């Protein structure tokens, strides 16, 4: 893989990412900014962050194959990497059944999308797939540099590493709440968790790892919320992030919940050393 991600990065929707925040997290020592929320195919949001920074990798988390034309994405990739070689990782995924009318046969659509990227000269080494289940994890192993799973737990990371084998990148996302009060932390986390529990690809995946129908119902059980949005002091959260690394992850993308993520970025940068 061309881009260097480091052990820990940040994940933030592209609508909430500013160049000032990118500069701040680069100065704090984070290795990667993951641009979430289906950034547009022109990769303009990515390019602005790269223009404003010096070293940090910028990754898409993820470009949605249903609303971002593959040829346009390829053209954008070449434009951006010519300007910033070795600093772009293209994360690609099929999104969610509930959000996409064309969602039928997403695996086939993803394969076809990768075929276009191949034809347009986007190297396997510069792309990863949003992968939860074994079939797409195998595709990430065979047709990309690795996988960027979202809304998972260390048990999934362990299984994903087994499927990917040694070598391919495994870079899960992990939500965090910098708050030592459990009830208050859950109150912060639940609106975000509730949104994803309406999406069957996530709930089915969580049930593969021991969570029950009751756990994934409504706004989620306390056990589920605590696992999907780890909370506590910076040191306690850092230990939970390390659990992904110990389970086989190469990199963890942290997504602090709450109005202002910067205090969490600063505290975790210190705790992680």
Structural write-up:
Helix content is 47%, strand content 17%. The strands form two sheets. Strands 1, 2, 3, 4, 5, 6, 9, 10 and 11 form a nine-stranded parallel beta sheet that branches. The chain is of the alpha/beta class. Strand 7 (146-147), helix 6 and strand 8 form a beta-alpha-beta unit. The chain has helices at residues 19-27, 44-52, 70-83, 106-119, 134-143, 154-164, 182-196, 200-208, 213-216, 222-228, 234-247, 262-272; strands at residues 8-13, 32-36, 57-61, 63-64, 88-93, 127-129, 146-147, 169-170, 173-178, 229-232, 252-256. It has one domain: Luciferase-like domain (TIM Barrel, Alpha-Beta Barrel), CATH 3.20.20. The protein contains twelve helices and eleven strands. Residues 18-251 form the Luciferase-like domain. InterPro entries: Bact_Lucif_Oxidored (IPR050766), Lucif-like_OxRdatse_MSMEG_4141 (IPR019922), Luciferase-like_dom (IPR011251), Luciferase-like_sf (IPR036661). Pfam families: Bac_luciferase (PF00296). This is LLM class F420-dependent oxidoreductase.
């Amino acid at each position: 893989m061309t881009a260097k991600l480091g052990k820990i990065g940040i994940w933030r929707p592209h609508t909430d990412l500013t160049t000032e925040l990118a500069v701040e997290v680069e100065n704090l020592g984070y290795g990667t900014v993951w641009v979430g929320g289906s950034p547009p195919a022109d990769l303009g949001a990515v390019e602005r962050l790269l223009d404003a920074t010096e070293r940090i990798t910028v990754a898409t988390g993820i470009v949605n194959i249903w609303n971002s034309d593959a040829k346009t994405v390829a053209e954008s990739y070449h434009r951006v990497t010519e300007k910033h070689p070795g600093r772009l990782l293209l994360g690609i995924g099929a999104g969610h059944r509930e959000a996409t009318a064309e969602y039928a046969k997403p695996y086939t659509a993803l394969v076809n999308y990768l075929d276009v990227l191949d034809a347009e000269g986007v190297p396997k080494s510069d792309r990863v797939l949003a992968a939860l289940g074994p079939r797409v994890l195998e595709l990430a192993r065979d047709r990309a540099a690795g996988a960027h799973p979202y809304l998972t737990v260390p048990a999934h990371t362990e299984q994903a590493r087994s499927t990917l084998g040694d070598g391919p990148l495994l870079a899960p996302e992990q939500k965090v709440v910098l708050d030592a009060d459990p009830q208050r932390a859950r109150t912060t986390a639940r609106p975000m968790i509730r949104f994803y529990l309406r999406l069957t690809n996530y709930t089915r995946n969580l049930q593969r790892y021991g969570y029950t129908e009751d756990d994934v119902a409504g706004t989620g059980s306390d056990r589920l919320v605590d696992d999907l949005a780890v909370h506590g002091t910076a040191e306690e959260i850092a230990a939970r992030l390390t659990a992904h690394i110990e389970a086989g992850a190469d990199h963890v993308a942290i997504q602090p919940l709450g109005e202002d993520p910067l205090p969490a970025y600063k505290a975790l940068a210190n705790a992680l050393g």
